[in-house]
What we know:
alpha+beta, 9 helices, 45% helix
Amino acid sequence: MEPVSTEHVTTLRRFNRYFTRRIGALDDHYLGQDRPLGEARLLYEIGDGTSLRELRGRLGLDAGYLSRMAKALEAQGLVRITVHPQDTRLRLAELTPAGRVEVKEQNRRANRLAEGLLNGLTPAQRGQLTESLGTAQRLLRLAAITVELVDGAAPDARACLYAYAADIDARFPEGYDRAALVQPHEASGDTGAFLVAYEEGRPVGCAALRRLEPGVGEIRHVWVHPDARRLGLARRLLAELERQAVERGYGVVRLDTHASLSEAQAMYRACGYTEIPRYNDDVYGAYWFEKSLKKSR
């Protein structure tokens, strides 16, 4: 990727400073309640009850910091901490009646704050802002996702492939046989690659590259979890797989796709792939594509 410009960094930091001040995130009494934003957010996230482990992953908090906040809320009578009945290592957090009352009031005040921010805009401007915020959230989610090169036999790699197989088995009229999945040794080492995308530690996508013939690689199983679709992650996986192909000496990559996957066909065409005649005997293939790759300088 191109280096991040100073202008982009400055603009994002300026927005962060403005927005955190504007919503009162710097105030020890967030929304006029007797607690800072961190504790208020933790109460909200506990909701109907969850584990501290889940909260730590969801909020990206240090275990010790989360534990201290949870204990503080427990001491105030807003949260109840218990041990999981089937796993004594797991602690569960749930709201007390007083905690539910506070979260309800917190939501009321947060809605009022949001309405106050939007009140000074015309309906058209509100629509523009809402659309822009949706775009910002989508792009920030995409930016936070990491794409890692893993062994084709790694548990996360196989889990993603099995999820991919289940997904397309439901979409293909003829179903899908998992025996057609790329084998671990094909997508590892000097001739292959397997990518797994992670969002907050959870695998949300994958893509595989294997050797087809000298100088030619084949892209297989570009898949994104339903929760992470429409972010642009599939294109990011595809671009990274192309880079891996160049590193392995492939000047061309090919792929095939099923007739049912119209969105995949559109993406490949948009990413510079050209339709070619059938090059394999894949029973699920209906369209075949190829792209010439340029070596990076």
